[in-house]
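re: ur question from the group chat, yeah i did fold both. here u go
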Amino acid sequence: MLLALNLVIGLGHFLVLFNTGAYLPMIPRVAGSLGVNPAYVDWTQANFFLTMALAFPTAAWFLNRWGEMRSLLGAFLAFALASAVCGVSHDYGWFLASRMVQGYAGGITIPISLGVLLRHYTPPHRNMGLTLWGMAAITPFTLGPVLGGWITDTWGWRWLFYLNVPIALAVALIIAIILAGREMEHRHPGLDWVGLLLLLIGVGAFQSALNLGEIDDWLRSTTIIGLLLTGAAALIYFAVWEWNSAHPLLELRFLRRRNFLVGGLGLFLTALCFQGVMALYIVQFQLMLGYSAWLVGLLLLPLAVFSKLTSMLTHRYIHRLDARFVGFIALIGFSIGSFWVSSYNRPASLDELLWPQAMASLFLGALFPPFATIALSGLRGTAEMRGGAFLNLLRVSGQAMGIPIVGALWDRRRILHRHFLGEGNAMTREQLGSAQHILQRQGIVPEAAHHLIINRIDHQAALLAFNEIFHFAGWAFLLLGVVLLLAKHVTFAEPDARTRLAMEEMVEP
């Protein structure tokens, strides 16, 4: 019975996280099917992460109010329904709303499923259960782009959501059968509804401003200014409210601990940079270089091959080594990999593009664990659980905000390079005229020649902007490595090493 419970919990965990990585290579196809700009489809991924982030602080209320079985059953049924709507929807608004429901329902399942394993497993069997749960956590993230690209090119992007439905329904049914009659005593705690409302308004307003920025020209738009002011006011009020609350939604007092502040801030910024450049990499290699979704997935295959091994080694030895040193080395490795990617050019072959990913994969497994270990230093029991929920909100919010921020920065740099390439000086105009003359001699009409040259300029501008983004990311990872060294030495207050490891793994992507 316990083995069946572990397998179904692991399958549900895999399913939720698989929908984060597998969806990225589908974005250009989804944009074409729904008839919208790819920038709008980026919102469906960013808002998926945002609602998942908001689910973590509320999961404990669902657990205590409705119990393990009802909470997981309802969450997976909602996930299945939202997936079905995504699969059949031809309307962008419905698709976006369904992706947000997917994210929230999936986010609810993650901490509750971990709690199920910790409660139902006796100590001799807990190691096996938590090990399988941790493997289910990292596998979909690394394999997601590869399998998602294959599904897109072979069956079509809608099949990701069609496949979600029977799997989510099966998980819900099996969980209901296994956990029926084994519920813990229900409590009816109050939820900090004021804090939740303020958090929803603050984070939602900021995310909406970031999503609209690339389209409405940022601070030249009164709508974006209004959203930013609303978000800032709501988050300031939220901080004051939570600091003085007897039962806060988020334990903001943890920020007084230097390690939690360094670990939490570093986790947020690392997730922001990493998810932003990953989304740019996967989407723009299709739009800019003409790669298929499957080939883009293959470019990321090294992440799946090596990151699992380095993750296992990191989790095994990080408590014997200095977590600050481990995190610093990982960030330095990612910095070098980002600088390497920034040297890409148009003729680069597929095998040349694989090497930087292979190098990055050696450090991916060690990229996030040190932040979680440092932030949770000195915490145990319920304090560690509350700290983990806070860190999850920071990490997933960083992933949500990284997509529009990096996308907007890339678009700005692309426009700047296009300006200098196409309108920079008289010599450039002479070169354009010469190129048009050569193309006309080859039988290409002037209008087609002009469009061909403009498209070539756009392509080169996009490639230059792409390289610059990864150059900026290289410096960002390097600076984050220096910030990590500001933390104090890690102390482990939780005596159960496997429980501590599970809490740290829950904070990772």
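okk and heres the other one u asked abt
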Amino acid sequence: MTATEVSEAAQEIEKLLALHPKGFDLSLDRITRLLAALGNPHERLPPVIHVAGTNGKGSVTAFCRAILEAAGLSVHVHTSPHLVNWHERYRLGVKGGKGALVSDPVLADAVRRVAEANGGEKITVFEILTAVTFLLFAEHPADVAIIEVGLGGRYDATNVIARPAVSVIMPISLDHQAYLGDRVELIAAEKAGIMKRGCPVVIGHQEEESARDVLIATAERLGCPISVYGQDFMAHEEFGRLIFQDENGLADLPLPRLPGRHQYANAAAAIRAVRAAGFDVPEAAIEKGLAGVEWPGRLQRLAGGRLSHFGPPGAEIWIDGGHNPGAGHVIAEAMATFEERDPRPLFLIIGMINTKEPIGYFKAFLDLTEQVFTVPVHGSDAGLDPLALAADAAAAGLEANATSSVAEALGQIAELTDEDPVPPRVLIGGSLYLVGDVLAENGTPPR
């Protein structure tokens, strides 16, 4: 489905948006009531890999899916938010091959049935969409379901799963402070809410020791078999290969297809999570999964498309939806690695929504970027004004200019670099909503 095709499912969801809140209202009461009306489909799922975290949860979800599919297993996947089409949130597994995004008629039917079961009661759209996840995954057989948390953990609508095969907590940093708290240990406590007594837990790489301590303490209190990155498993690059290590020994693997050194730890967490969930996948499947993994909108290079015509000839254009200070640091590290390999002047095109902390994000790019161009975010009502965002970039020490669109920003970069001998590198990011706008405008939506 393209961004311009009429979607029956999208029409049904738009009806819900007119009736129910689009934002978050963290509680499990409404989703529990709705699931009961549907016959509790969340109790009829295949083994569940439940993933939370501030950053990296989408990447570890993609790695888990790629490894399990390479092993011949059918894998359901729930992620949020979507970039272009609502269907991206629901990938249904296919035995012996890659899963596919849910078809429009199947999704539209599921949305209608869930809305009917809700009976007009107060609920958020995210809770309805989560109930759709459980309904779809219960009605279509698969070997495993990977379910990504929407926000937080403890009171997220996905957290009705009583006995996950494994709970995975990826890196935690400041984000959604209004909902989760203004210190990383408070946010860690909310994310740790997906842990269930006696069920395996995998803790990914944590920059903040205080967050790591909270996660470990919670897992120990609940009697969970626990695996901690840097303690029970780890990964590093050696001679152009990824070396994964745990108590079973070393595995010599290809570097992940997803760019950036931060993906080494994400890949390691996925390998450990798959094993902790009880799937004895062969090393050949891990190799195939790392080499073939896909995750749209996260350090994705735009190869052609309508927008590329506005930019400088030969420019290297990347998009990434990372939107908080922690994400800014790993993206900046990736850009620095690209610079070491292939020196080019770097320009940023950034749009953000008003729940984020822009200055911390921008500071990660000091001494890396020539200039920042700020743009509006059309895919969200909460988009920051480009003038205000440019002021934030300036406060972080960067030269910044506000523009009206990504196309205009690319055109200005083309003018600035017209006589430069080396075409520039451009990063478009700061919001998954912006990345979705870019993919839609470029004519290259995820599939």
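fwiw on the second one: The mean pLDDT is 92. The domain at 298-440 is CATH 3.90.190.20 (Protein-Tyrosine Phosphatase; Chain A). idk if thats what u expected
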